[in-house]
Design brief:
It is a single chain. By secondary structure, the protein is mostly helical. It has a domain at 429-528. Helix content is 80%, strand content 0%. It has helices at residues 2-12, 15-28, 32-40, 49-66, 79-93, 96-112, 117-134, 137-154, 157-174, 177-194, 197-210, 216-232, 236-249, 253-265, 269-279, 285-301, 305-325, 327-331, 333-401, 408-428, 430-440, 450-463, 465-474, 480-490, 495-502, 506-518. The radius of gyration is 40 Å and the shape is elongated. It starts with a helix and ends in a 10-residue tail after the last helix. 30% of the residues are buried.
Amino acid sequence: MLVLVAVVTACSHGPQWQQLTQVDSLMTQSLRDSAWHVFKQIDPEELNGEDEKMYYDVLKCELRQQVVSGDSLHFDEPYDSLLNRCVTYYQKAGDPRNLVRAYLNKGKNLLERRHWHEQASTCLKLAEEALPKAQDVRLSYQTYEALATLNYYSGNDSLAMDYSYKTLACAELSGNHHQMTYACNHLVVLYMARQEPDSVHKYSNRSMSLLSQMPAKDRSYALANLAAIYMGNNQLDSAETYLEKARTELSQPFIYQRLAEISYLRGEHAQADTLWAKAMRTTDLRDRVEAYQSMVGKKYGTGDYRGTADAAIRLLELKDSLVQQMKTAEVQEIQLKYDKEVERRKLDRFMLWSLVVALALVALIAAGVIYHIRKASRVKEKMTRDQVLINDYRHQIELLQSSGQDVTREVRTLQKKIDTLQSEQTEKLSEGRELYRRVVNGESAVAWSKDQLLKFIEYYKVVNLPFMMQMEREYTRLSPGNRFFLILQDMGKTDDQMTHILGVSEGALRTTRSRLRQKRTAPAKLEG
């Protein structure tokens, strides 16, 4: 079916659409470098319609986040503005998969700005909300990974742990080894912060077992993460071993930075300066800033104030350059606030409609409950009236029979009325009658439900209505269990029989009697 959909879709678009779907497919398989190679061959001027153009833009944003730096891609508009356009378009288009992409790209971009965690959280949670409809394991992995990182930076370790486990579950589901390695490394970092060495070693060993099946770049990051663990535990030799392995796989600025820190901690200051210089040979201002921050921290910690001052001055210059570079992003802050307000209004409307629907459902349920209660009440009232009539008819029969006259016809009429009423009661109270029979025979009622107790109590009105009416007059707030207790006493059950039927001890019987005495509202005793 997927192939058929792809063929039909390709036939309805131009050749550029086929290239876009190929890029999408390669990204799904985590073949990011191949996806970037195909993407570079697409001419944006030949794209047909807004659908293809937005598909191109959302893939372009994803490639920027995962494969290449922003400098390698040309954007005709500010990156934040493009991200907002992607989100707006796919919100209206009803394409959950690309909507997740748009939210995820925007959230990751905001996450890169460490002080914009609130905005990043909003986008990433919206991406998570759209995941069930997207049904894409890779996007689920990326979303949970970003949320784990966000919560780690924000200090929410428990949430970071939950999302890291979700990340690992997605990686295992897709069978992607380098994703499993990254997920294990996330857990290693979190367990290291919790000081749980057993869990650290567990996921560290699992990560190492997966390295051979990963590309060099991924192995480099994984090894560097493992080195960070040993550095955190002050095991510098082990950390250096992993960093050297990482540098062999692929040299990166942060690897030289960490090697420089190890050398400086050992007192090899000249070697450390050489390694920091290598870390700064990059066009990425953020990497250079981090390298200088590392240098300032270490030199200050050892009392090298002259070196600290020189590094701090250079660090300030780099930060000024970084601020200048980010000024275009600040222009978009108003738009981001507007987007957030629009999202809040949408959420408010959703909550309002949800409240209206919920209130309507509550009203319907309440109406149904009230109707059921009133119906049950009418049934009980009718049964009570019927029982009163039966007792009255029986009394009339006794008076007629004691008169000494020929009252056969009148007696037969009254008896027929009694039989009719009892027939109706028997039909309605058949289950209660059976429960009553079981109690008469001394069977236990421990396993009875509340509904069975109520049916038994209703039937007992047929057996002894005056007692039931007197019980209602002389007691308040009686539970079904209390009524059942009093009925057993009225039936003449001994304490031994009641303990068996109720499944309680003699002490519990005494306690129940004491509590029932406190509920009495009339001085007269109940009579059987």
